[in-house]
């Protein structure tokens, strides 16, 4: 497991660590050529490298990033030529050949409806603004299904969170809206995972009277269904989530003035 960047309560961080479950030990990561300190960035795994991009440090949103190779323990900077505008709260997915970055908010707090596609093989960026894009938003979730990217939820500039979502297929270069029938309530800062056959979203901040949320939904075959809230973790925003192959594991996040160091396992 590779951890990098973030915020310690006082400042943005530019360090990280690698944890080996086999021997139960941590090892520090090199900081040579590492990205500048930041939080609110994204990270994807390509199969051989971790790619970090975007985020914010103080009042400055960033359009920089780097690739980390754990085999050599080295960082390689990403090009900025053709890169999307700096942002935080965006999403990024790995398609198998490229990283797709979308959405987020700029330095003025305005949300964005465009992004970029980065190809490590050619080390180049391509602008990403196909027709029919979702409304500009940040704090949404995004998953890659194997053939399409699905984004859901998030907050549109100046309004409460939404419960809408869209899918994007690189093969057709087109967005398609998801049904909202049976979808979970509107939220931002929630977690989302892809199981291999379904997207699960959980938690987040519903704003208004709903506040922090401890429920979610499952989207499969074009339909939504609710997931059980019995035994679920306490309501929270910005938890982490991973899919193990059989379970979604939720951990951390914050809500009601508390940072959480607990979580839960959900078996679909």
Protein model, in words:
- With 268 residues, the protein is mainly beta.
- It has two domains: 1-129, Neuraminidase, CATH 2.120.10.80; 139-268, Kelch-type beta propeller (Neuraminidase), CATH 2.120.10.
- 0% of the residues lie in helices and 38% in strands.
- The chain contains no helices and 26 strands.
- It has a four-stranded antiparallel β-sheet with strand order 4-5-8-9, with no helix packed on it. Strands 10-11-12-13 form a four-stranded antiparallel β-sheet, with no helix packed on it.
- Strand 20 and strand 21 (223-226) form a beta hairpin.
- It is globular, with a radius of gyration of 18 Å.
- The model has no long low-confidence stretch (mean pLDDT 95).
In short:
The chain has no helices and 26 strands. It is mostly beta strands. It folds into two domains: 129 residues, 6 Propeller (Neuraminidase); 130 residues, 6 Propeller (Neuraminidase).
Tally of strands: 26
User: How many helix segments?
Assistant: 0
At CATH level 2, the architecture of the largest domain is 6 Propeller
Percent helix, as a range, is under 10%
Q: Which sequence of SSEs, written as H and E, runs from N to C?
A: EEEEEEEEEEEEEEEEEEEEEEEEEE
Number of individual domains = 2
Structural class: mainly beta
Q: Which structural traits does this protein have?
A:
single chain, 268 residues, mainly beta, Neuraminidase, 2 domains, four-stranded antiparallel beta sheet, 38% strand
